[in-house]
Amino acid sequence: MKQLNQAKQAIRQAGGVASIADFHANGLAKDIVADLCKAGLLQRIRRGYYCLADEVVLDEQIIATLYPEAVVCMHSALFHYGYSDRTPLAWSLAFPRTFSRSRLKLDYPPIQPYFVQDDMLALGKSVGDFNGVALAMYDRERTICDCFKYREKMDAELFNKAIYGYTNDSKKNVGNLAQYAKEMRVYKKMIDVMGVMLNDG
């Protein structure tokens, strides 16, 4: 079927998830896309975004396509850095406070959003490799600062493991940790737990 081949081409060019604009660029009208969905050949991920029904699309690719402004944070970042051995039940993602909540209406993958002030969103922002997909994520120091910021919402065991993991990480940067903590106004909280390390740094 020519239309299905056009749809496959659009999806593969887009990296596994295509938008209506991607389909249009490959000569497919919106009603054709709807027909392919009804026929069970395409699967709608969210309004305006589709993948092939018979192919597995990585969570990471969906996130990269739907939420380019998101930053991997908290539980997902802790797991990525090896500071937690708990596989997160949902993707922890930081978004600007102005982000439209309606865009988070998604059946899969599950997302735990954190809405961050615009002036703090880029602090400690880096890039991580997630199954071959590059996603924006917070570096080690920003991730630990977030643990202090959201400590009351964290499981105590997870918090302690995160601090222990960071303390023993040869890649840590205590200077950046102190700087971020001051900018995020969690420095005093951090001193109580990590005072010796911060003073030495």
Structure description:
The protein is an alpha+beta fold. 46% of the residues lie in helices and 18% in strands. The chain is built from ten helices and eight strands. The protein has helices spanning 2-13, 20-25, 30-38, 59-66, 74-81, 118-121, 140-149, 156-167, 174-183, 187-200, and strands at residues 18-19, 42-46, 49-52, 71-72, 91-96, 111-116, 125-130, 133-138. It has a three-stranded antiparallel sheet. A three-stranded mixed sheet has the order 4-5-6. A two-stranded antiparallel ribbon has the order 7-8. A hairpin with a 2-residue loop joins strand 2 (42-46) and strand 3. The protein starts with a helix and ends with a helix.
Sequence-ordered SSE layout with sheet pairings:
Elements: H1 2-13, E1 18-19, H2 20-25, H3 30-38, E2 42-46, E3 49-52, H4 59-66, E4 71-72, H5 74-81, E5 91-96, E6 111-116, H6 118-121, E7 125-130, E8 133-138, H7 140-149, H8 156-167, H9 174-183, H10 187-200
Parallel strand pairs: 5-6
Antiparallel strand pairs: 1-3, 2-3, 4-5, 7-8
Helix pairs in contact: 5-7, 7-8, 7-9, 9-10
Helix-strand pattern, N to C? Answer: HEHHEEHEHEEHEEHHHH
Report the sheet-strand fraction: 15-25%
Average pLDDT taken over every residue: 86
Provide the low-confidence segments as ranges: none
Brief overview:
By secondary structure, the protein is of the alpha+beta class. It has helices at residues 2-13, 20-25, 30-38, 59-66, 74-81, 118-121, 140-149, 156-167, 174-183, 187-200; strands at residues 18-19, 42-46, 49-52, 71-72, 91-96, 111-116, 125-130, 133-138.
List keywords for this structure.
single chain, 201 residues, alpha+beta, 3-stranded antiparallel sheet, 3-stranded mixed sheet, 10 helices, 8 strands, 46% helix
